[in-house]
Structure formats: C-alpha cells, structure tokens
From TrEMBL:
Lineage: superkingdom: Bacteria
Organismal lineage: Bacteria, Bacillati, Actinomycetota, Actinomycetes, Propionibacteriales
Transmembrane regions listed in the UniProt entry: none
GO biological process, any: response to hydroperoxide
Record-given protein name: Peroxide stress protein YaaA
Organism from which the protein derives: Nocardioides luteus
Record-linked Pfam families: H2O2_YaaD
GO CC terms: cytosol
Length: 258
C-alpha cells in the first residue's frame, strides 16, 4: 500500500543538521528531475530576488521565503514529517504514532512535493517555498515537469499494492493513475448537517490526517478500494464507495461533526 499526501504550504525550517543529500532520498530515479528544479529555484532566488517574489507568489511581507530558497543547498535538512506542518500533519501527528505505526508510515506514506516530486516521511529535506501551480524559469510549469517524471518513481514505490491518493487538486495534476486506476482509491470528506453535505477545506484536511493515522495504527493492508472502505468502516467511519473511474474509485467519508 502506498499513501500519497499533499504537502503543506507552511513548513518548519530545521535550525541545525546536515544539508540536503539527494542521494539519501527515497526513489533516486527522481534525482535528475529534482536537481533541475533545485538549481532553477536557487538561481532565481539568488540572482533575481525581486522577480522571484512575483513568480513564486511570495507575500511582500515575507521576503525571507526567497532567501530560504536561495540557501536551499546549504540549509539544514530535517525529516519531512517535521518540515511539513499544518492541519493534515497535525491530525496525523507522526511523532506520536506507536513504534509499529511509525515503521508502517516510513514505508507506506509519501508526500507530493513541488521540489522533490515525492519524499518519504523519513527523508531529510530543507524547508522551501514553491507551490505546485508555479511556472519556474528554466523548468516551466511545475505540474507538467513532474507529470513527465513521476511515473517511474510511483511505479517503484507502489509495487503491486493499493494506492491511497489523498492529494489535493493542484498536486493530483503531477501524475494521473490511469494505468493503476483499478487499484487506486481517492478519498473525499463530506460534512453532513441537516441533511446536506458539503466539503469543508480545513476539516477535510484534518479528517484525512486522522484517517491515515487510524489506518497506520490498525496495521491493515487492504488490497482494493472496496477493502479499504471496509477497513475504514471497521475503524468507525461512515464510507460510501463510488463507481470506478480512470482516476480510481472515490471513497466518500461522511462525518457529522467538525
């Protein structure tokens, strides 16, 4: 089983530690594509910082984010599960997983990244600022860049298991699971109130974090979207299964409380 998460826009920079070592990351097949993004990002932020503010969508009040990117190769790196922060990662709380669940998370969970393509939770990376919908000079559109490179990495990481795709729309465009759609489950969280259902962004992220945490702690390893739905039901969630599509089978997790 491979669980794909979106990154967080906010990141916690390490204050000490060794710098990035690409050869130590999972999926070295992605390293040439990673290096191309890193080199272009560092060059932009080092030589044209004012232009970088506009290209990267950096708030005028946070010029330090450009400086962060300029020092990407020399900055301290930390585990990805400490760098990525925000609602989903707070709910997942990797640091408080049981030892067995931590081992499962290391092997089964990967984060989609504009800079690195995919990283495991134990991969050591620096904090950065690069959104998935950016057009980066020297690289082009980040989504298109990774669409042409992620296939080999994902095939290696997935093997013959189930893909649990929790990416948001921006990062789902990095790669489409056409060839493995029959064993791909996407998850949507719906809040039901007074007979009406809607997606609430903040709660959607928190619930996805809780779902992944519960799945890792359970030790379950479902092989199909239907079995994953059964697993979530066994864990106390209300789940409805949609029809298979070329994007996978959508599981709607229906919750009544925010």
């Amino acid at each position: 089983m491979l669980i794909l998460l979106p990154p967080s826009e906010g990141k916690t920079a390490a204050v000490r530690g060794n710098p990035l070592a690409l050869d130590d990351l999972r999926l070295p097949v992605l390293n040439p594509a990673r290096a191309k993004v890193i080199d272009a990002l560092v060059e932009l932020c080092t030589t044209r910082p004012d232009e970088a503010v506009d290209i990267l969508g950096v708030p005028k009040t946070q010029p330090e984010l450009v400086t962060l990117n300029a020092g990407l190769l020399d900055a301290p790196a930390a585990r990805a599960d400490r760098v990525y922060t925000g609602v989903l990662y707070d709910a997942l709380s990797p640091a408080t997983l049981s030892p067995a669940a931590k081992r499962r998370a290391t092997g089964r969970v990967m984060v989609t990244s504009s800079v690195f393509g995919l990283v495991g939770l134990a991969d050591r990376i620096p904090a950065y600022r690069l959104s998935g919908d950016t057009t980066l000079p020297g690289v082009g559109g980040i989504q298109a860049h990774w669409r042409s490179h992620l296939g080999a990495g994902l095939t290696e990481a997935l093997g013959d298991g189930l893909l649990v795709d929790l990416r948001s729309g921006t990062y789902a465009a990095f790669w489409r699971p056409d060839e493995v759609s029959a064993r791909t489950a996407t998850v949507r969280v719906l809040h039901e109130h007074n007979g009406q259902r809607k997606v609430v962004s903040h709660f959607n992220k928190a619930t996805k974090g809780r779902l992944v945490r519960a799945l890792l702690e359970s030790g379950a390893n479902p092989r199909t979207p239907a079995k994953l739905a059964d697993t979530f039901r066994d864990l106390g969630w209300t789940v409805e299964v949609g029809a298979p599509t070329n994007k996978g089978t959508q599981l709607d997790v229906v919750v009544a409380e925010i």
